[in-house]
Structure formats: structure tokens, C-alpha cells
């Protein structure tokens, strides 16, 4: 039995662009990576257009919209510039993330609870344009309540702390897993669609994929790194298989 439609896999192609930009030019091409992801079993493509354009650039977003048939999840900071780009490009979804210029990657979740007044008009405007709005937040009930108050239909739970805990102790790893599971069920109970992502690897994905209310995982950096050794197609197919194995095991027990 397959569970593919129950747990989607979004592939983040940001760091293909990171490699390209270290030297300049056009290689490797993140749009080509997205096409490989399509053939390998991805259900969507994620790309983060940062304010400083350190990896994905505007033309990448334009090409992803034009050349990839899968839904595009446009990660963006909560700025007027990014809202205007989203309204112009009309991706399937936007995921509003925190962004600091000095960080290497997105660190932690968005403080939706502390930015209600700032986020509210953006969430309403994007939603009115037919764009599904997601908030990238910590697995925290206060932040989930804020997402509901803002009218965002989706939250993506930050899994970075959970992934780092695997190197601490089994107890820390389980504590972080349980925290994500609690938040996922809490949010789903309030009517939110639950996604998760950040830092997931072959070693950490199955416990998250086994949480039945999670509908989508977004994974990028690890898969791009693995592609150096086994190829992008193989790295994605292996991740897809682990996700499905975990979800099928849950279904078999229910």
C-alpha cells in the first residue's frame, strides 16, 4: 500500500543555487535540480528568495514558475518587497520565515505571536490573491495559536532543534520528537494543515514522518549534500522511501 498522497515531499533547491553563486555563471542550475526532483518523486519544490539574494535569485523563481509543473512553495521574509514578488509570481504557496542577513540558514521559527500586527495584512493580502500562506514556526502552542489568529491555513514546524538533539542523547532526541508531535496534533486539532522541515536527514526523518497529522515535509540541504556522493535522484528516492516506510508502518498499526 502507498501513502504518497498522505505525506508530501517538498524539495528545497536553494543550495544548488548556493554552489552556483560561489563561482558565478549558470552552473549548477537549481531549475535543473527541480526537474530531477520531479522525476525522483517530489510532490513540490521549495525556494527561498532572500533579501540579499545569496542563493536563489529572481530569475530562478520566474523559471521555476514557468518550467516546473509541481506546486512552488515560495519561502519569504515578511517584507513588502517579498509580498509584491509573490503577488506577481503567484506561487502555489508562500511560507513566511524569519530572516537575518548574518545567518547562514534560517535559524529558529518565526515569532508570529510577537508580530501579529505586522503579519496580519500580509497574510490577508496573500490569501486574498489565492496563495496558500504557511508560517514557519517553532513547535510551540503559543505560536500555533498566533497562526490561527492570523488566519494562516498552514504551519511548518521547525525541526532543527530536534535534528540536532540526535547527537545529544536518546532522551533529548525523544523529548524534541514528542514536542513536535504534541504541537502537530494541537495545530491539527485547531484546523491547521501541518508541515515540518529544517535539518531532516535519513537518520531523523522517520520519527517525524510517522506523526500521522503531518501532511508535508520540506527537505533540501541534506539531500543536496548527499547528491555529491550518490546523485540527486538517488538521494531523493531514498528519502521518499524512508518517509513512506514510516507512514505505512503507522497505517499498519491503526
TrEMBL record:
GO terms for cellular component: cytosol. Keywords: Cytoplasm, Pyridoxine biosynthesis, Transferase. One of its GO terms (molecular function) is pyridoxine 5'-phosphate synthase activity. It catalyses: 3-amino-2-oxopropyl phosphate + 1-deoxy-D-xylulose 5-phosphate = pyridoxine 5'-phosphate + phosphate + 2 H2O + H(+). Its main location: cytoplasm. 3-amino-2-oxopropyl phosphate binds at residues 12, 23, 199, 220-221. 1-deoxy-D-xylulose 5-phosphate binds at residues 14-15, 50, 55, 105. Gene3D superfamilies: Aldolase class I. It is found in: Cytoplasm. Pfam families: PdxJ. The active site is at 48 (proton acceptor), 75 (proton acceptor), 198 (proton donor). InterPro entries: Aldolase_TIM, PyrdxlP_synth_PdxJ, Pyridoxine-5'_phos_synth. Its EC number is 2.6.99.2. Pathway: Cofactor biosynthesis; pyridoxine 5'-phosphate biosynthesis; pyridoxine 5'-phosphate from D-erythrose 4-phosphate: step 5/5. One of its GO terms (biological process) is pyridoxine biosynthetic process. It comes from the Bacteria. The record marks 156 as: Transition state stabilizer. HAMAP family: PdxJ. Belongs to the PNP synthase family. Homooctamer; tetramer of dimers. Catalyzes the complicated ring closure reaction between the two acyclic compounds 1-deoxy-D-xylulose-5-phosphate (DXP) and 3-amino-2-oxopropyl phosphate (1-amino-acetone-3-phosphate or AAP) to form pyridoxine 5'-phosphate (PNP) and inorganic phosphate. This is Pyridoxine 5'-phosphate synthase. It comes from Kaistia nematophila.
Amino acid at each position: 500500500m502507498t501513502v504518497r498522497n498522505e505525506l508530501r515531499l517538498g524539495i528545497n533547491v536553494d543550495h544548488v543555487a548556493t554552489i552556483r553563486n560561489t563561482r558565478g555563471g549558470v552552473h549548477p542550475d537549481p531549475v535543473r535540480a527541480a526537474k530531477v526532483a520531479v522525476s525522483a518523486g517530489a510532490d513540490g519544490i521549495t525556494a527561498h528568495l532572500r533579501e540579499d539574494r545569496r542563493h536563489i535569485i529572481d530569475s530562478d523563481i520566474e523559471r521555476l514558475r514557468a518550467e516546473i509543473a509541481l506546486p512552488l512553495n515560495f519561502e519569504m521574509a515578511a517584507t513588502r518587497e517579498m509580498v509584491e514578488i509573490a503577488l506577481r509570481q503567484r506561487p502555489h504557496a508562500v511560507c513566511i520565515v524569519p530572516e537575518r542577513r548574518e545567518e547562514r540558514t534560517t535559524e529558529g521559527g518565526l515569532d508570529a505571536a510577537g508580530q501579529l500586527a505586522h503579519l496580519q495584512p500580509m497574510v490577508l493580502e496573500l490569501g486574498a490573491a489565492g496563495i496558500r500562506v504557511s508560517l514557519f514556526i517553532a513547535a510551540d502552542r503559543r505560536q500555533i495559536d498566533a497562526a490561527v489568529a492570523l488566519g494562516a491555513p498552514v504551519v511548518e514546524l521547525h525541526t532543527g532543534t530536534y535534528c540536532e538533539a540526535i547527537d545529544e542523547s536518546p532522551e533529548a532526541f525523544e523529548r524534541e520528537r514528542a514536542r513536535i508531535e504534541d504541537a502537530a496534533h494541537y495545530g491539527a486539532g485547531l484546523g491547521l494543515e501541518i508541515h515540518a522541515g529544517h535539518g531532516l536527514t535519513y537518520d531523523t526523518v522517520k520519527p517525524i514522518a510517522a506523526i500521522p497529522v503531518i501532511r508535508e515535509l520540506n527537505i533540501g540541504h541534506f539531500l543536496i549534500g548527499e547528491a555529491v556522493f550518490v546523485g540527486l535522484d538517488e538521494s531523493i528516492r531514498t528519502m521518499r522511501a524512508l518517509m513512506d516506510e514510516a507512514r505505512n508502518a503507522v497505517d499498519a498499526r491503526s
